Predict the structure.
Amino acid sequence: MNSRTASSIFEALSSEIRLDLFRLLVKNAPDGLVAGEIARQLNIPAANLSFHLKAIVQCGLASVEREGRYMRYKANVPLMLEIIAFMTSECCANNPAQCQKYREASGLTPGLLPKRE
């Protein structure tokens, strides 16, 4: 991943609605959700949802496929993991012990964090 790609992803996620939308798609991976169900769960009008879905799809965080008259949106989980790895890959590169302290202080389950090299 490069900084330009990461920047477009973070720009897409800078909206609270798009962040909630992406998290909802991740929660429903791998099957995804149809647009109407997304609108219902997020309690937003279809017109607003369309705008936000477009931004998430354009940056690659989600894909869309037609199912009859419905559009199904699915999270790109590998890309999500890649952006996490991109952000953390050089954490305390010259001081792995410090990075380990940060990992422990985060309170996250170790399996949720990218492996250190």
Remarks:
- Residues 46-58 form the longest helix (13 residues).
- The mean pLDDT is 91.
- The radius of gyration is 17 Å.
- The first strand starts at residue 33 and ends at 34.
